[in-house]
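cron nightly-structures :: item 1 of 1
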Amino acid sequence: MNLKKYVYIAFSILIAGAVIIYFMLQSTETITEPTTDPEQDIEQELEDHDTEDESDTSEENQEQAEETEQTGFPPIVSGALQSTIGFFSNQETKIVAIGDSLTQGVGDETEQGGYVGILDRTINDGLQTADIINFGKRGNRTDQLLKRLDQEEIAQEIADSDLVLITIGANDIMKVARENIMHLVIDDFVAEKEGYEMRIRQIFDKIIALNPETDIYLVGFYNPFKQYFKDIKEFDLIVGAWNTASSNIANEYENITFIPTEDLFTVTTTNLFADDNFHPNYEGYYLMAERVLEYITTR
């Protein structure tokens, strides 16, 4: 589907500006896969949970209330807390989170690990019932995640996991925008979606080969251009088509579930974006964590 010439020129100029701003904010990690170890280390947060006094829940609740009052942010997803505790309290669970900056928690101004950190604090509220490992890597695309799944540490953690959470795909869209910045048309995204579909299947197959028993959840992504181009519906169509493809592929597998999040960022008047206008802020990640908890505790 090509745009008319005058719309096409204006559209290209607008997207060029947005993409330039985006990549100025990104580190060089978004373009090339580094040779150093890319995994995020969340051991300190897990150690903090281990040192809590599990017997004094009233004191713990008071501390959480004081923290919420001071920061303005709820530390856990309280609305889903009861079902979460009931789901995880009778079993030890290992959760592996892999993917891009949404897994890493980029944009969370509290620096508490984004939606994965909120999951950790909610699931392990007062108890260490789940071991949550975060392998989020800013800038990861599907092709890069495929290579990282061959790394021994990641492969071993997935092999031992009970549940795998994935965020991936937004940087595949950004790659199309960057490579076609001066002559951008929607057909470029349509063509690249076929490659994305092939690679997401390969990611699923590789995880299943490592651990046929683990439950896999693919977390959908939102329109990263929403803040810049609220009136350009083509971006909504592109993101919607990629999310639909992700959902359809997930439905082909018995143990894979697609978790939609695009609607979370479109039906609210609250600012859910970080200062870079691309990543979620804490409120955005909080809504994502709520949605993820809803899916993993009711399946």
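cron nightly-structures :: done
The radius of gyration is 19 Å.
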